[in-house]
Amino acid sequence: MITIRKSTIDDLDVLLKLAGEARTTMRESGNRDQWKDGYPSAAVFERDIMNGCSYLADKEGEAVGTFTFIPSPEPTYGYIEGAWLDDAPYYVIHRIAASRKSHGLFKAMLAYCFGQTDNIRIDTHRDNVIMQHLLTKHGFAYCGIIYLQNGDERLAYQRNIRQK
């Protein structure tokens, strides 16, 4: 069973290791342009921890994944080429990183997050076919394209469990 808790600064090395494993998985699946140049860095994880939005997933005593879970608004979601499902308050999931032993992580993460909110938005790189598959499989609707602060595009998804 996967358990989820908030990350602490003592988890920083584990978070960086998980990000490295996720980066390797991305590259092996053809996603060569996401998470370049050491992103997410220790400083990014430290900021998430200090803001109380970094989470660590554990399975049988071993860290198997991490993600950030942030209340709205997400500045880069203010403009979308397309349309969000609604204008209701939402949470955002960012920086999902999983070990190779993480079977079931995405489902456990969503169960945890939907235990806190009804409405989640998430974005992913066009080449991240693994994430696109998981989002579709778990009922997220493709809403359009958003742009990061540096101008890079991302595919945007949303799921509101109160909507059919």
Task: Name the helix and strand elements from N-terminus to C-terminus, one letter apiece.
Answer: EHHEEEEHEHEE
Average pLDDT score: 95
How many strands in all? 8
- % residues in beta strands: 25-35%
- The rounded distance between the terminal residues' Cα atoms is 29 Å
Query: How many strands, what sense, and barrel or not for the largest sheet?
Result: 8 strands, mixed
The dominant shape is globular
SSE class = alpha+beta
Q: Could you name the ranges where pLDDT drops below 50 across 5 or more consecutive residues?
A: none
Which key terms come to mind for this protein?
4 helices; alpha+beta; 32% strand; globular; eight-stranded mixed β-sheet; 27% helix; 164 residues
Written description of the protein model:
- The chain is α+β, with helices and mostly antiparallel strands and 164 residues long.
- It is built from four helices and eight strands, in the order E-H-H-E-E-E-E-H-E-H-E-E.
- The chain has helices at 12-28, 42-50, 105-114, 129-137; strands spanning 2-6, 54-59, 62-71, 81-82, 91-98, 119-124, 141-147, 153-160.
- Strands 1-2-3-5-6-8-7-4 form an eight-stranded mixed sheet.
- The radius of gyration is 15 Å and the shape is globular.
- It starts with a strand and ends with a strand.
- The model has no long low-confidence stretch (mean pLDDT 95).
